[in-house]
Known about the structure:
CATH architecture of the domain at 38-124 in chain A: Orthogonal Bundle
Structural class of chain A: mainly alpha
CATH class of the domain at 38-124 in chain A: Mainly Alpha
Largest sheet of chain A: 3 strands, antiparallel
Number of helices of chain A: 7
Helix content of chain A: 55-70%
Oligomer: homodimer
Amino acid sequence: MMSRTADDDMTKGTGSYEQLKLGNQLCFPLYAVSREIIKKYRPILRKIDLTYTQYLVMMVLWEEDTVNVKKLGEMLFLDSGTLSPVLKSLETKGLVSRSRSDEDERILLISLTDRGCALREKAKDIPFEISKCVELSPEETYELGTILRKLLKQTR
Amino acid sequence: MMSRTADDDMTKGTGSYEQLKLGNQLCFPLYAVSREIIKKYRPILRKIDLTYTQYLVMMVLWEEDTVNVKKLGEMLFLDSGTLSPVLKSLETKGLVSRSRSDEDERILLISLTDRGCALREKAKDIPFEISKCVELSPEETYELGTILRKLLKQTR
DNA sequence: CCAAATTCAATTGTGCCCAATTAAATTATA
DNA sequence: TATAATTTAATTGGGCACAATTGAATTTGG
């Protein structure tokens, strides 16, 4: 008996566990792809001595020039427990400066230094280098971006 | 056509940095969504005293019953540096057992204990609970899964 | 058979991530 | 205006992730 595979019986036995599989849950490939792509960034980012998280912070600063930690956290979906040490590390490298707001001393303002600003030029081609590692059609790229942004919005 | 903003000018000034923005790179939302969804798992998994990584390992074992560390790493895209402590932790909880293969003593076999097997019943409804937090249409779910699996395949 | 290469897991060190707590500063309220 | 509530970062501790190294066991080539 029991020649059916465990995979396709939803009526009894192991069938009730059908959804409890790696292949039937979106979160696992999401998680794995995310890590795999960050892995592709690593050798490229090492050339400018940045980790992926540090690179995310720098991208914000290249657009905003000055932001506080709270705003940065909201933009990157990261909290102070993650950002505090990352920002100290960027300060140690001389890429950002940290200073308290005059109006509200609880607020820590993060600004680009000249060196941090100059790094933008060196980072310029990174998105192109990464895009070479990821083979998706323009349609797939657009579709993926749309769905991910939709999911991200749901977490707010 | 002359009403374009600084954001889409590829011809001068900051234009050459256009791709170097959070909004124009897929990796960032991928990374953020992955973390946000894992965050949704946390309170649910806490009820059965598992972390997300431990849950992934258990899902493999509920299907395979016995696997070695190398195979597990290939399935989950994780290396021994991550898995070794996770597996020890699962052993401490009494959910898995670790034993060397008789034929090749380099190989560590991970097996479900009775308690680990029984946990499956408690975990049964987790995929359903998570799906309630994620609002995607069936089409979007299918599309996302297809694209993620394609990307995952490219890393091999 | 034996040395070299390979395979597999464990260890070590660095860097996130996050929950929970703390501490400092500001704002709102009785 | 005291004081209670809120806001904002920093700190702490636990658990991954991963690169690099190590060491043990097996396989392979001469």
